[in-house]
Design brief:
With 228 residues, the chain is an all-alpha fold. The chain has one domain. It is 84% helix and 0% strand. The protein is built from nine helices and no strands. The chain is globular and about 55 Å long.
């Protein structure tokens, strides 16, 4: 007869490690909301008129900062510096919510729309994270489709900088919400199945998805339910 004790030990150890990554990810994700909110309050007090005057330059700077920060976080994902960079990045993204929040809060029902967007984002995240962590289904097949979707959406964003078509903007926002929702399913499922063992990288991915869902959901709500 064979002794299965070592095998069971490895299985239990892997499960404990997975649960630890998931707990640390959720804890870090909660922590990132603090610099994000602080950044958003600061962003609401800033003058972003230069973005409207130079949208291409603003988009280029935003992408350069985003790629640079994500690269730096990835390079330092196993050290304390990675956590510091992650919190700094969430602060910057909070600041970049400034123009959207300024526009929203100038509407008579702007506060309600922001609240609805925040609540909707929370419901979407909790629902999808619950599904991804409880189902036995492997969502790793979503990875390639989601990456292709992101590339297509960014090409559409660049095109709309020239075209300025409101309907296309709404379509982009709706697709971005779907893609970001897919990333939540994918990322949480990866953690649960042991495919992602670094909570800094997992937090970064989930934060970006939550950020995109909130900002795009708020844009859609303002388009359809905003009262001047």
């Amino acid at each position: 007869m064979f002794d299965n004790t070592p095998v069971l030990g490895r299985s239990e150890s892997a499960e404990l490690a997975t649960n630890k990554v998931l707990r640390n990810t959720y804890a870090m994700l909660s922590l990132t909301m603090i610099p994000t909110v602080i950044g958003a309050f600061i962003g609401m007090s800033l003058d972003f008129s230069i973005i409207a005057l130079h949208p291409f330059i603003a988009f280029g700077v935003f992408m350069a900062v985003t790629i640079g920060m994500q690269t730096a976080i990835t390079a330092n994902r196993n050290s304390g510096l990675g956590i510091v960079l992650l919190l700094a990045y969430t602060f910057l993204l909070g600041v970049m919510l400034g123009p959207l929040l300024q526009h929203a809060l100038h509407l008579r029902n702007g506060g309600q729309l922001v609240g609805l967007a925040a609540a909707g984002t929370g419901i979407i995240f909790l629902t999808l994270a619950g599904i991804a962590s409880s189902t036995k289904r492997d969502f790793s097949f979503l990875g390639k489709f989601l990456v292709i979707g992101v590339v297509v959406v960014f090409l559409a964003i660049i095109a709309n900088l020239f075209l300025q078509i409101p309907a296309l903007s709404l379509t982009i926002s709706a697709v971005f919400i779907l893609i970001s929702s897919g990333f939540i399913l994918y990322q949480v499922n990866q953690i649960v199945r042991g495919g992602e063992t670094n909570y800094v990288m997992a937090t970064l991915s989930l934060f970006i998805s939550i950020y995109n869902i909130f900002s795009n959901l708020l844009s859609i709500l303002m388009s359809f339910g905003g009262n001047d």
